[in-house]
Structures are given as C-alpha cells and as structure tokens.
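Human: I hope this is not a bother. Would you mind checking the protein record under this note? Thank you for your patience.
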Amino acid sequence: MFQTLKKVAVAGVFGIASVSAVQAQDFGPFTTSQSIDFIRAIADADYVKTSGPANVKGSYFEDSYEINLTQISDFSYSITEITSGNNAQYDVTFLKFGFFDSIGNEVTSLTNVAAGTYFLSATGKLAGSLGGDFNVSFNINPVTAVPEADSYALMLAGLGLMGFVSRRKAK
C-alpha cells in the first residue's frame, strides 16, 4: 500500500512539473503604445506645387514611420489632424495614409500581423498659414501562443498509463 502511494505521489509530481513547463512559456500579453505629435512648418515641406488650380498649389509632406514587430501582433493606429480654433494656423489635409509591409504592399488586416518590418505612412497638404500639426498614434498587442490541446491529452494519457501500470504491479 505504501509503495503504491509513493508511486502515485511521484507520478503526481512529474505531472505537475510537466504542466508548469507548458505554462512557463506563456509570458502573458503586453502592450506597446506610442503617440507622437508632429508639427510640419511650411519651410519643412517635402515638396511644393506651384502650378495648377489654387486648391492644389501649396506645400506637401510625405512621412513614413518604421515599425518592427518581433512576433505576431494585433496592430491599430490613427493619424489625426490637430487644429487650434476656427482659423487654424496649423492645418493638414490628408491625401493618403496607411500601413504597409516592407515591400510596399498595403496591409489590410491589422489582426495577427506577422513579425517583420512595416511602415506607417502619411501624405498630405500643409494647408495652414504656418504649416500643419498632426498626431500619429499606434498600439501593438502581441498575440500569445495557446498550447495545443493534444499536448494536454498526451500528458493525461501518460498519467493514466502510469497509474494503470502502478495499480497492476500492486496487485
């Protein structure tokens, strides 16, 4: 009887050790957020259009922000204009913005984004008398790996077989 109890205790210790080994790889979710304000003065324009209709002429910008994801992540972002008052001295008219992979393809799904290098890009017109003011915010939520059910099933089957063998030897 004592030998059986000792064998069951040893099997239990190994079972607990195997469960904790599986859970030791789960570091839990963490969030990396970044929010940046940019003031682009007219003098800082990337290019100036001097021909065409009046609403097309002016100073323009093209900004790109490199983001390196080290693991599969959910990603969200916003690019918003910051204005002060009704007659904004810093005004931005966004022409295009988006999230692109390293070869320039637009990423349309921001969930389960693979690890790699990405670019958050914004292009627009500096429509204010002094330029433009805008905010770029992004949030990265790494996706945690979920252990597969078959690893738990194999562990339980192994414990069951160990119990069966120890009970059979006890008889």
About this structure: Helices lie at 2-23, 149-170.
